Amino acid sequence: MKPTPPAPSVLTTAFYAFYDLHRPAYHAYAAARLPQEEAQLSVTQLFDLVAGNWTWLMTERCPSAWAWEEHTRAVARRAGRTSTPAEDAALLHDDLRLSIDRIAIITGAAPARVTALLAAARRICRPGS
Questions:
Q1: How many helices (H) and strands (E) does the chain have?
Q2: At a CB cut-off of 8 Å and minimum separation 6, what does 27 contact?
Q3: pLDDT tens-digit map of 20-68
Q4: In a designed cystine with 89, which of 47, 107, 112, 117 is the match (CB 3.0 to 4.6 A)?
Q5: 97: left (phi over 0), alpha (psi -120 to 50) or beta
Q6: The dihedral of CA 51, 54, 56, 61: what is its sign?
Q7: Residue 14 near residue 50 (C-beta atoms within 8 A)
Q8: CA end-to-end span of the chain
Q9: Inter-CA distances, 53 with 8, 74, 124, Å
């Protein structure tokens, strides 16, 4: 028997919880890479995309990872430069002052992966150390 899909009110509440949890960090990331108006537009378009795909997205293993990938791709396109996951982790941690656990939540990566990306970023910044 196929499970009954959640009621629309549950999906709406879940979307707004996702939005409230992710939007501040997504905007800060975009604002660090783009002019303010571009950053705001990019984040607005991302959440329009997330909302439009919300029912499908809830079936995915890690909705945060999908949304983060879409977000970084859109920011890179607008900025004209693609950053590496290590650069992104360093920006989030060192510049935006997010904890490893918070970065893991918003990017959909395991905390151990975030830690490894930060270590890689530090090696790149200090070659020969």
A1: 7, 0
A2: 39, 40, 43
A3: 999 999 999 999 999 999 999 999 999 999 999 998 998 889 999 999 9
A4: 117
A5: left
A6: positive
A7: no
A8: 59
A9: 13, 16, 37
Query: Per the structure block, which two tokens stand in for 111?
Result: 């905390």
Residue 103, H or E segment: helix 100-107
Amino acid at 2: K
Tokens of 30: 């975009």
| CA–CA gap between residue 114 and residue 58 (Å, rounded) | 23
Q: Are 42 and 75 in contact (CB under 8 A)?
A: yes
For 88-106, how does the pLDDT look when each residue is reduced to its tens digit (9 = 90+)? 999 999 999 999 999 999 9
Q: What is the pTM of this model?
A: 0.86
Helices of type H across 34-99: 36-52, 54-57, 63-79, 85-90
Burial of 96 (0-12, 13-18, 19+ CB in 10 A): middle
Q: Reduced to 3 states, what is the DSSP secondary structure of residue 109?
A: coil
**CB-based contacts of 83, cutoff 8 Å, min separation 6:** 33, 72, 76, 91
Cβ–Cβ under 8 Å, residues 64 and 108: yes
